[in-house]
Design a protein that fits this description.
Structural class: alpha/beta
Helix content: 25-40%
Number of helices: 6
CATH architecture: 3-Layer(aba) Sandwich
Order of helices and strands: EEEHEEEHHHEHEHEE
Number of domains: 1
Largest sheet: 6 strands, mixed
Radius of gyration: 17 Å
Strand content: 25-35%
Shape: globular
Distance between the termini: 17 Å
CATH class: Alpha Beta
Number of strands: 10
CATH topology: Rossmann fold
Oligomer: single chain
């Protein structure tokens, strides 16, 4: 569950006040809204990369407003993917688990499982350089899901892909949704993505969050 209670966001000259949002546990929510309204800032605030001026952020009923990002246990795929050029695909999938001091056997099992689901087993020894856009998206998604977070945040994850690759990723995200209990908040400008993936659609406007159903 993701919940925002009367949150005020400020970033330079930008501000957004009175934001209220609720995504039930296990649901896939798609958030849309005009460019520059603060959708990315909102995601960054939920995962702890930006502080909120006022209000509360709750994850599965726990107030995490003042928690460090790592303590929130949130998987996050930023728009630029933030992949590390010096790491292999396997090392990306292991990255969050190493930080959490998971055993070698657990990392190997989880990496193999994710690679199969994401269709990147053949890429595990490859470096990031030279991967296609769709392959890079799959690696970023795998890194975010590797430690089995209760919440997944996606910031326009498919915007840079061609139509065929985007359709493949729609199918992949639907499969992740069907096989995982992760609560997802997906930011996009694409109505097609919302119609394909969303259990609930949300709209961010100057008055906060408007539930579209």
């Amino acid at each position: 569950m993701i919940e925002l209670r009367n949150v005020t966001l400020k970033s330079g000259a930008f501000s957004l006040a009175g934001v209220n949002l609720f995504v039930p546990s296990g649901r896939y929510a798609v958030l849309m809204g005009p460019t520059g309204r603060g959708k990315t800032t909102l995601l960054e605030s939920i995962c702890g990369l930006r502080k909120v001026a006022t209000g509360q952020i709750l994850i599965h009923g726990q107030d995490v407003t003042h928690w460090n990002p790592a303590d929130r246990q949130i998987g996050y795929v930023p728009q630029d993917l933030a992949l590390f050029p010096t790491l292999t695909v396997r090392e990306h999938l292991e990255f969050a688990m190493r930080l959490r001091k998971r055993s070698g056997a657990e990392m190997a099992a989880r990496t193999g499982e994710l690679a199969e689901v994401l269709g990147i087993t053949h890429l595990l020894k490859r470096s990031i350089a030279g991967l296609s856009g769709g392959e890079s998206q799959r690696v970023a998604l795998g890194r975010a899901l590797s430690f089995k977070p209760p919440v997944l945040l996606l910031d326009e994850p498919l915007s840079a892909l061609d139509e065929a690759t985007r359709n493949d990723m729609h199918a992949l995200l639907r499969r992740v949704k069907e096989t995982s209990s992760v609560t997802t908040l997906h930011v996009t400008h694409s109505l097609a993505e919302s119609e394909s993936l969303a259990d609930c659609s949300l709209w961010l406007n100057q008055d906060g969050i408007l539930d579209r159903g």
